[in-house]
Amino acid sequence: MVNRSEFMIEAKDLVYNYPGEEETSFPALSGINLAVRRGEYLALLGPNGSGKTTLMKLFNALLVPSEGEVRVGGISTADEDKTAEVRRYCGMIFQNPDNQLVATTVEEDIAFGLENLALPPAEIQKKVIAVARMLGLEQLLQQPPHMLSGGEKQRVAIAGVLAMQPRCILMDEPTAMLDPAGRHDVIETVRQLNRDQDIAVVHVTHFPEEAVFADRVIILNQGRLVMQGRPQNVLSDIPLLYSLGLQGPAAAELAALLRKDGFNLPPQLIHSRELVHSLCSLEPKS
């Protein structure tokens, strides 16, 4: 028997139509059945307009289902009296960190949500320092957020969410506006939180290299869930990804091309190191 308490988020027969959308060919989301387990890292892929951001907003109670149900920590997101509790349970990180930074210093920004809970100042200070230390922001606490790099801003946004002690972090393309170094820092930060704090992560991304580290990959297309599974299974299916207008990880695409040229490579290669190791292990042709 499945222990329902192990699920952080549950979507059942989920349908969402934006106002006036009923006359279009398909709703934003249709027939979604999905559960996110405690401590799971879930990557969400799909072409533009597939419903990824809509699903994240439904998980965070920014939207309410047209049909079906979403439960977060056992709470229905349709219960308006519990909206604040849902959002504390599932904190959300948006694509542009500037949309989440509201204060004049990093310290004040991290403390913003805690102050809205009317916690004692000493407790707020303790939590802010702990989170700043965890994310390597201690030296930036008195800095204005607008003076930071893109990666630093996104870490401040994560810190503000983390200070609220969520059990799940929802990330809607958090690295889309960052350079490669900033992307690496943010992803490593979130992976560490997932491993060390057992915080569940739902990560919308258009970078397949970011999805290879997930426990499970979900693909949406035209509002429907079309595939899910381990990254090795999903991200190595290059024909499927191409049919949806998506790319695979560079290692998986290169491996597919090399197989066509006669290289005897194992299936489901998605990591660059795995590909290099496999190539170095090949016996030379006689």
* Total helical segments: 11
> Radius of gyration in whole Å, from Cα?
21 Å
Mean pLDDT: 90
The helix-and-strand class reads alpha/beta
N-to-C SSE series? EEEHEEHEHHHEHEHEEHHHH
Major sheet:
6 strands, mixed
Q: Roughly what fraction of the amino acids lie in strands?
A: 15-25%
How many extended strands? 10
Q: Which spans have pLDDT < 50 for at least 5 consecutive residues? A: none
What is the fold named in CATH at topology level of the domain at 37-63 and 81-231? Answer: Rossmann fold
CATH architecture heading of the domain at 37-63 and 81-231: 3-Layer(aba) Sandwich
The CATH class label of the domain at 37-63 and 81-231 is Alpha Beta
> End-to-end span in angstroms?
56 Å
Please tell me about this protein's structure:
This protein has about 290 residues and is an alpha/beta fold. It has helices at about 50-60, 85-90, 105-115, 120-135, 150-160, 180-195, 210, 230-235, 240-245, 250-260, 270-280; strands at about 5-15, 30-35, 40-45, 65-70, 75, 90-95, 170, 200-205, 215-220, 225-230. The chain has a domain at about 35-65 and about 80-230: Rossmann fold, CATH 3.40.50.300. The chain has eleven helices and ten strands. The chain has a six-stranded mixed beta sheet, with helices on both faces. Strands 2-1-4-5 form a four-stranded antiparallel beta sheet, with helices on one face. The longest helix is centred in the middle third of the chain and has 18 residues, at about 180-195. The termini are far apart. The model has no long low-confidence stretch (mean pLDDT about 90).
